[in-house]
Amino acid sequence: MRIHTVTGGAGLRLHVREWGKEGAATIFFIHGWSQNHLCWKNQYESALGDNFRLVAMDLRGHGMSDAPLDAAHYTERQLWADDIAAVIDQLNLASPVLVGWSYAGYIICDYLRAHGSGRLAGITFVGAATTMNKAALGTLIGPGFLDHVRGATSDDLPSNIEAIRNFMRACTYSKLPSELFETAICWNMAVPAKIRAALLAREIDSDDVLAELAIPVLMTQGQEDTVILPAMGRHILTCCPKATASWYSATGHAPFLENPSRFNEELNQFARDAVSLCSDA
Fold this sequence. Notes:
Blueprint: E1 2-7, E2 13-20, E3 26-30, H1 41-44, E4 53-57, H2 72-75, H3 77-90, E5 97-101, H4 104-115, E6 122-126, E7 131-132, H5 143-146, H6 149-152, H7 157-170, H8 178-189, H9 193-199, E8 204-205, H10 207-211, E9 217-222, H11 230-239, E10 244-248, H12 255-258, H13 260-280
Parallel strand pairs: 3-4, 3-5, 5-6, 6-9, 9-10
Antiparallel strand pairs: 1-2, 2-4, 7-8
Helix pairs in contact: 3-4, 7-8
GO molecular function: hydrolase activity
InterPro entries: AB_hydrolase_1, AB_hydrolase_fold, AB_hydrolase_sf, Epox_hydrolase-like
Pfam family, one: Abhydrolase_6
């Protein structure tokens, strides 16, 4: 495992870790709202590292990256776009496959809008969100998220803890092992409530960006997801008709945690195919 500090948008320092085979094709993991790189443990400690260079970042405001409390650091899409571009540039990631969970769908679309898809081999959207507005609440974004937002963005610590515990329970259909669940609570609580709130102070419509995608796209979605509803996955497929879908039965918001063996096998095949297509182009 190798640790990097990357200078992201507006000079903010980003914490990035990598594993696996140096010089190999890259899979770049981007986590969701209030999470960090630790959520990808079942991927970076798997056989994926035998064939790929695996890179995972802590988003601005999360984990071990800089976390200024001013909301302006989180409401400008160009900053998010430049963070992803900075990791690709400063770590010399050649045609990476991006894997984005949940809120990372927004961030990947921010990157695509600002920088295009020319440097990417493919994208895997995992329970990912690409639309955030009032109309999406309850139709694309579900109660597994909405029911806990008030507490999770509150400065009242007991309310905050209760909301995060309930949010993490809502993230999976099956119960996580106790050690993993406890660790997930810890990495969520590392994110200040003000930053969680700032991430939601945006209005996002990425339909036009998705419609222009010509690189391989895989939409991975749990059928029992109550955080980002399956309707969001279907929306991505409608906007991006060349995308392929992988639906997980009896699975919630985190297929990579609930069914890591299947997830890793599918990601391995998708990344191989995407990189091969990119090399032939």
